[in-house]
Design goal:
mainly alpha; two-stranded antiparallel sheet
Amino acid sequence: MSISHLWGFYFNPRQQWHNLQQNHSSLVESVSHLSLFSAITPCCLALSMWFFGIEWSEKTRFIQPLQILGIAICMYLSIVTAVILLAFLARAMTKDYGKPANFDLAMELACYAVTPLLCTGFAWLFPEGWFLLLVGLLGLIYSIYLLFLGTPILLEIPDERGFMFSTTLVTVGLVLLALLFFANAFVWMWVLR
């Protein structure tokens, strides 16, 4: 994904989905996009933990570099896994909602729809709870908006069916997000014990 695609999703998302519908990305392009943008949150979190530490039990704790690396790797793998699972679900659901899509198309939809949520990882460079919550919520809302907007366009299904399709994907996506938070919290508790 080029920078022009990224700007297009922020400033003219409908036109950007139409551009992608006409010129589909390959699976390699979607996976490279996913691997690059999924690294934002773990890298920024690692930098934040390295420089600022973690407040734990009302005191600041600095973690060993190998522990930071372990947390970052686990977070990266869990983000990539969640997006790939979302793409598999989208692929499986297309049979019920219109013309069956290939996995490349489902991966393209999942990768580009979650990009704003993945970009919220930059907020870890300013590790304040209220700021992280606000930026994360805004990224989640915009990702849901992109999913609702892009599903009927990219999959070429009617808007009504696209709404139901997107609603199902959002529901499962939120469950995956909750599992992602749980898995990362488990890793953090294991590291900080």
